[in-house]
Amino acid sequence: MPGNYATERKGIAAVQARLAEIELIWRETATGDFGIDGHIEFIDENSEPTGMMVGVQVKSGQSYFNGETDYNVSYAANEKHQKYWEHYPVPVLLILHHPDRKETFWVDARQEFRTNKAPGKKIVIPKFNNFMTASVEDLFKNAGLTQTEYVKEIPDLLAYMLTRNTGNAAFDMSFFDLFCLGMTNICRSLYFGMDLALKIADHKLAMANSPFGVGAGHSEYDFLEDYIRFLVSQNLVHANYSDLLIDLEMREMVPEFIVPLSRRGTALKNLISSHEDDLIGKGVLVATGYRAAQEAFVEIVEMSMFPRFERVAIVGNALKSQQK
Asked: Per-residue pLDDT averaged across 292-310, rounded?
């Protein structure tokens, strides 16, 4: 039975054993915690805890496999679990364990609900999602773990950003350009969107007196996606990476967002300003009212709103009249 303590513990034990194999920390919650059995913490290459977590709910027992097919197994979540997992601050891995067959499958339940992949609260887990063969990258993908190498020192991070560019004169920009020109909210936040990239590319063409226009293809879109993953992997911003993945992978579009700078992001911004001060002090640059790392203003384009003002008023009045 699902409620059998020994059966439940077999599932937890199987999960713990696999996590020990791939050198991740398992932090079990107190008995009776609603919807979460524990958390997995990511360990870096120096075997140090990072604070990057995913939640885990383990369901162990043969009854959870009733109605399975050759290709998948499903779990019917109740409304309370759906709301809890969907709004949980970190990804929630739902793990189904068959104690007799020793088979264990998993899926990110939070992402399933956020992307409307779970119709009628029913989560379908493909059997190729084998927890016992899942990699660390698989488990932490929606938490923001990417394959980008983590650069510890801020000066090295800056050096990398200066050299990471498109290599396309018709879409000329670097990670440094996108970071500095994306500053907003008194440099406490960072903006990114396709419009920012197009403005940078267009301005550089104008500076070069180029007769050609902006040109971008798959490699340029890949560059922008790499920039987003870079921001997250280097912990420069506080971003909900799982939401960004919905645009990147499901909708195949470049996301648009404003996110707070992290402590490292602020340190990077301060380092850029410090170097600029040195250049001014040496007479290389003239002090002006503008800085490299300075906020820009982001606003809703009135053109996209103007045709809708009247429509919003009409719909609002109609809905209010229906409530009388």
From this structure: 86
